[in-house]
Write a structure and sequence with these properties.
Its main location: membrane. By secondary structure, this protein is an alpha/beta fold. It has 2 domains: 379 residues, no CATH class; 78 residues, 2-Layer Sandwich (Transcription Regulator spoIIAA). Helix content is 62%, strand content 7%. The chain has a 4-stranded mixed sheet with strand order 3-4-6-8, with no helix packed on it. Strands 1-2 form a two-stranded antiparallel ribbon. It has a two-stranded parallel sheet with strand order 5-7. It is elongated.
């Protein structure tokens, strides 16, 4: 523990600025996801704070950041509608957290390891593209929605592309100027030459962008009123000046809903979807981690369970480990879980002390920050690298990107996973054995040497090969090299041995455990 404490102290110079950047990214996301979910705006902030102050220390990951997830907005919206009251939905969040805790203890976290790398990289690239596409209207000052809408089709009847077309016809000059200036600063701030100087290493570009954006908008309001940015294009959070006002904002779960059967369906849905999103996110963050640390996924599920129970009790939305915030953390130089904790501290402080200032920040400046995060997730070099790996890796990668772009995160991942599994099955179909044929005048001898690991995925390939063996041949099936042969495969081999005489095939089975073939008639 002493070594870890030393690590935390040694990396404060990187973790505090990274936490500040993540806070600046998380703030509009917390508000936007709450808005898109049909929940009180403050509930999004509560979840972000709990994700930073509680889950960061319980998590198995050093770099992932937890908070309200865009992928859960539809589930939250439907859950509130199904239960008829937000207080009832909060109880579902608490129960979902308890279920996640159970999943962690039964070691269900291993599920995340079965997702192909091509699908995870496709998810990262798609999120990068979505961030870019979704922020363009905010960048231009033409969209009054918040940052929570990750789906292709939006509640206002538009889609991702029509929203951009609409934005270009409704540009707000002040927002555009601030957006361009912010983006230029962020690009320059990332320059390797400037990084040589201590100031540019310690001070995050996003902080400079936010401060400058506020100053510019104040200048526009006083001297160039035609460029002044409307309140609808500024951050908007509730201003809390006392504990009484805080108590008035907080909403608590209603335990009378325990008798409502719909509660348990909503809770189960939240737990499963949130767990899946978390496992995918931490797997993706592990790939982004420059130190290549591995996350204990079971510990992560337990941490998320506790986080959701606490968030639900305080009036917050359900949470997951979130790739947008996590990737911003990595890109900003975060090294340990302290950066996620710092982001939670800043969110908490913003509620009590910075609300009036934050409500002066133009959304176009925050859009510029997210445009940079999006670009880093979907760099052209990523596509080139996947293409070089061959079509078995490139096709699931591209399909995942397109599916997420035109549906939503979870549906897109499922489609990408289906394509990835197809290529895995195809690869397994080809390599469960070594086949050698010796031709002779009397009877051909065919050697089939089974590979080291023969799973049920290989069953179809082996059965097809056995069915196509020529009549009047001598077949030797050898399992000497096999450490494991699945029962289904053993049964198929025994069934072939039992019926091979009908084709005048002589069968020798070596080093393979015989199993009885069940008669289904």
């Amino acid at each position: 523990m002493k070594e870890k404490t030393n690590d935390y102290v040694a990396n404060l110079g990187k973790d505090i600025p990274a936490g500040l950047v993540v806070f600046l990214v998380a703030l509009p996301l917390c508000l936007g996801i709450a808005l898109a979910s049909g929940a009180p705006l403050f509930s999004g902030l509560i979840t972000g704070i709990v994700g930073g102050l509680v889950v960061a220390w319980l998590s198995g990951s050093q770099l992932s950041v937890s908070g309200p997830a865009a992928g859960l907005t539809v589930i939250v919206l439907n859950g509130i509608e199904t239960l008829g009251a937000f207080e009832g939905f909060l109880l579902a969040v608490v129960l979902a957290g308890a279920l996640q805790l159970v999943l962690g203890f039964v070691k269900a976290g291993v599920i995340g390891l079965y997702f192909p790398s091509s699908v995870i990289r496709g998810m990262l690239a798609a999120i990068g593209l979505i961030l870019i596409l979704k922020q363009i209207p905010h960048f231009l000052g033409a969209d009054e929605d918040f940052f929570g809408e990750m789906e292709f089709f939006q509640p206002d009847g538009r889609n991702t592309f029509s929203e951009i077309g609409y934005a270009f016809s409704s540009i707000q000059p002040g927002s555009l100027i601030i957006g361009i200036v912010s983006l230029v600063i962020l690009v320059l701030w990332d320059n390797d030459r400037l990084k040589r100087y201590t100031f540019f290493k310690l001070v995050p570009g996003a902080l400079v962008v936010v401060l400058l954006a506020v100053v510019l908008n104040l200048l526009f309001s006083s001297a160039f009123t035609s460029l002044a940015i409307a309140e609808s294009h500024l951050v908007s959070i509730p201003i809390i000046g006392s504990s009484e006002e805080l108590a008035g904002v907080l909403q608590l779960p209603d335990f009378s809903f325990l008798t409502n059967p719909d509660l348990y369906i909503v809770a189960f849905t939240i737990a499963i979807v949130a767990s899946l999103e978390t496992l995918l996110s931490v797997e993706a963050v592990d790939k982004l981690d420059p130190h290549k640390r591995r996350t204990d996924t079971n510990r992560e599920l337990k941490a998320q369970g506790v986080g959701n129970m606490v968030a639900g009790m305080l009036g917050g939305l359900p949470m997951t480990a979130v790739i947008v915030r996590s990737s911003a953390n990595v890109a900003s130089g975060g090294q340990t879980r302290v950066s996620a904790f710092v982001h939670g501290v800043f969110l908490a402080l913003s509620v009590f002390f910075l609300a009036e200032f934050l409500n002066m920040v133009p959304l176009s400046a925050l859009a510029a920050v997210l445009l940079m995060v999006g670009f880093k997730l979907t760099k052209p070099s990523l596509y080139k690298g996947q293409l070089k790996l061959g079509h078995e890796q490139f096709v699931p990668f591209i399909v995942t990107i397109l599916a997420i772009l035109f549906t939503d995160l979870l549906i897109g991942i499922c489609i990408g996973l289906a394509v990835g599994v197809f290529y895995i099955l195809k690869a397994n179909y080809k390599s469960p054995y070594f086949f050698h044929r010796e031709e002779s005048a009397n009877r051909d001898t065919i050697h089939i040497k089974l590979s080291e690991h023969v799973s049920f995925l290989n069953k179809a390939s082996i059965i097809l090969t056995l069915d196509q063996l020529p009549h009047n041949s001598h077949v030797i099936i050898d399992g000497a090299n096999s450490a494991y042969i699945d029962y289904d495969v053993l049964e198929a081999i025994m069934e072939f041995k039992k019926t091979a005489h009908e084709r005048n095939i002589h069968v020798e089975v070596l080093n393979v455990n015989e199993v009885s073939v069940m008669d289904m008639h």
